[in-house]
């Protein structure tokens, strides 16, 4: 017993960043330009570590148990695995060429990757590190969403302008839904009833009914003093209770807060320049945006929808993932 | 002995593999079809896209700048592939039908041939005069034209047509894009050196107009007469080194030298050889264009990779202009769910139309002359230096309309 305690104490002394109070989470930000992942403590909102990764890191996600971080190293044609305990790269997955974005299945076993250059979605078995399926989709696949029950994934193809619904049991496309120009991101509502798809160049978010697989509503944005061309929706996150959606608006430098009942934009939160992706802290009280051109991330309080603080990270921050524990 | 064994096994293995392949293809084909179509099988609707081209090999001062044989056509082919990838989900397919004539030929017979083959959408890479010679035939036959090659302002102004869409930028758009950058740099005093051919004069005219619009001054102009010098001579470079400094001697104080030499007679010789050390821009040095083979911004890497993989060379401006035209057709037929020329044309002319073309914002047609509004890339031999419109050049409707002839000044009456 004593010996056990000693070991624990030694481990704690050796790795001070590992032992965090229960309410602090690690925030992992991929920096596209300087090939790093910045680790930020969500409580202190300070950078605790910078990890060197492969070329052009973009999509980033974390295993449901919080132990492994997956990063698309686009220009190295691989998905790198970082051990969250040591912040070291411990392996890679066979992603296919130019992986940009991916989504982890709810059971944590499969990673679905969009391969931009090959018009494919690749399904990877994480444990076996093998490719299970390659699904031909439209031109320049990008956004990846997964239904809460894990039965459906949605991929968006940027030049084809479609959301492709893929049955995860057969790995076949069941529906193709036309959306506006350059769809970048797909996000299911937590109850699985709707999929929200952003169109960067079209400047809209299409709300697709997951039963009929048809666009039931199209959300548009208007910011005083900004031309419509500058409003380019990219990352989307929906709160766990399904009531509010947050949409990153790219060069509009704002995050839109949308009421999911009325589909009305209730607020535009000014953050940094070229807002790209978003992630909630596990308690849902904070959402974080990556601001590519200003090299920072912004913490937004979801109760007041006010920006709390911006933290400088690496160059061209792109994606963000938060540890669940 | 070993050799004999090798000889006999290889064909057998190959035959086996081939048979297996056939089996695989046959089994997969109907399977793939059913999975790609949405719930019920859709009949495939084929759209023929014509590409009329007046071609002759072009010379350039640098062999690096000699246009590739398939310039433009290659872009259309890549876009046809893209459209077909999209089309397989919707029961649409696209084919490209290329017809080439001599450079200065009468293109009317070739055009009629395309129309009789059933082409109702035709891309043209021909001169302004040639384009105007087929415009009325197109109108009668209900053909929609896309000008992917001619930068002549006259086609969008005095001689504009209601059924010609232009994806190529105009000379005034190019000159304005360049001028905005130079003015942003505070390089406001220009010297203009222009060639003696008609198109050089047109480019020079666009530069003069841009100077007036954006507050630059042309402190002196000089013309370079084309006396029929061969571009390729073994010891020519020795003479050039002496000629260009003399040609640029005794100029008033200036910030930048602008060359207008579309004909490639002297322009590329100017950089690094001017009497006073000044940057060179225009048709040589810092060049304004609709695309750059090294542009990687705004997802550009993807089209560049796709193009390079399919064609085996870098993507040039005319390739991008043709790619955009074919993608516009793909987008329109997808949205209106028809390839009827009238419906497609109406959609392109509606407020709903826009296209993404790796330039950071949506592109649309100017409704007063059907010119595609687009950002202009400013680049040198190695990469993109900037993209216009520049910050601070404001416009009440779209900043892209600060490039080229704007609505209030247009001479086009459709």
Low-confidence stretches of chain B: 1-40
Indicate the CATH class of chain A: Mainly Beta
Helix and strand sequence of chain A: HEEEEEEEEEEEEEEEEEEEEEEEEEEEE
Oligomer: heterodimer
CATH architecture of the largest domain in chain B: 3-Layer(aba) Sandwich
Main β-sheet, spatial strand arrangement of chain B: 7-6-8-9-10-13-14
Task: Please give a handful of descriptors for the protein shown.
heterodimer, A: 325 residues, mainly beta, Methylamine Dehydrogenase, Chain H, four-stranded antiparallel beta sheet, 1 helix, B: 414 residues, alpha/beta, Rossmann fold, 2 domains, 10 helices, 14 strands, disordered N terminus
Describe the structure.
The complex is a heterodimer of chains A (325) and B (414). Chain A has 325 residues and is mainly beta. Chain A has a single domain (2-322), classed as Methylamine Dehydrogenase, Chain H (7 Propeller). Chain A has one helix and 28 strands. In chain A, strand 21 and strand 22 form a beta hairpin. The longest helix of chain A is centred in the N-terminal third of the chain and has 13 residues, at 2-14. In chain A, 51% of the residues are buried. Residues 9-21 of chain A have low confidence and may be disordered. Chain B has 414 residues and is α/β, with parallel strands linked by helices. Chain B has two domains: 45-169 and 292-374, Response regulator (Rossmann fold, 3-Layer(aba) Sandwich); 173-289, 3-Layer(aba) Sandwich (Rossmann fold), CATH 3.40.50.2300. Chain B is built from ten helices and 14 strands. Chain B has helices at 2-36, 73-87, 108-117, 128-141, 171-184, 198-214, 236-247, 300-311, 317-336, 341-348, and strands at residues 45-55, 92-102, 121-125, 144-147, 164-166, 189-195, 217-224, 256-260, 280-282, 286-289, 364-365, 372-373, 376-379, 384-388. In chain B, the strands form three sheets. A seven-stranded mixed sheet of chain B has the order 7-6-8-9-10-13-14, covered by helices on one side. Chain B has a five-stranded parallel sheet with strand order 2-1-3-4-5, sandwiched between helices. A two-stranded antiparallel ribbon of chain B has the order 11-12. Chain B starts with a helix and ends in a 26-residue tail after the last strand. Classes of the chains: A mainly beta (325), B alpha/beta (414). Chain A binds chain B through residues 98, 116-117, 119, 136, 138-140, 157-162, 164, 172-176, 178, 181-182, 200-203, 227, 229-230, 232, and chain B through 35-36, 38-39, 82, 85-86, 89-90, 299, 302, 305-306, 309, 327, 331, 334-335, 354-356, 361-362, 398-400.
